[in-house]
Predict the 3D structure of the following.
Amino acid sequence: DAGVTQSPTHLIKTRGQQVTLRCSPKSGHDTVSWYQQALGQGPQFIFQYYEEEERQRGNFPDRFSGHQFPNYSSELNVNALLLGDSALYLCASSYRDPGNTIYFGEGSWLTVV
Amino acid sequence: RKEVEQDPGPFNVPEGATVAFNCTYSNSASQSFFWYRQDCRKEPKLLMSVYSSGNEDGRFTAQLNRASQYISLLIRDSKLSDSATYLCVGTLGAGSYQLTFGKGTKLSVIP
């Protein structure tokens, strides 16, 4: 049973560029959340997708957008990259109820230069 | 005031020691609480949920005090393998779907 898988694992981008990160949830899960974790900080909630809709959003600018596909996989897009966007981007999946256990992927390390 | 606050440490303890981590939260409507463990450059992994009645899993005991908005984690008989960052986590409020993380407390267990 595959867990949460994310790609790419590492990438380097230049300021002003755009990036797309991908996530496949754990088998049987239908809800995907994205978190940003800067060095020395706890993960910060970006948004959550359920039934292909953004269900809840954290305090992130519109440069951060996402999508969920019918197979429950998800993408995180970040436009006009800033140096401060350098972080570990974590995808987490769960089944329906937010009280159910959430599983994290290994993350995508983004460096903006 | 941050929504979830915890002492960043680091906590350096010898093997076999007992160590306690504390955490406070600001939103009294927060519903669910957890402790996650994160190894260096890895993803967070659920260690245990936290209940008002207290819960224990082997050497780990977690406690929630809703009146004081305070959460604790006790690790007994520390092992080298317990070295990690421990994240205090809660749901933001009633009906919230997001997890709110503290900055984490780093633990190093020393031989």
Q: What stands out?
A: Chain A is about 0% helix and 50% strand.
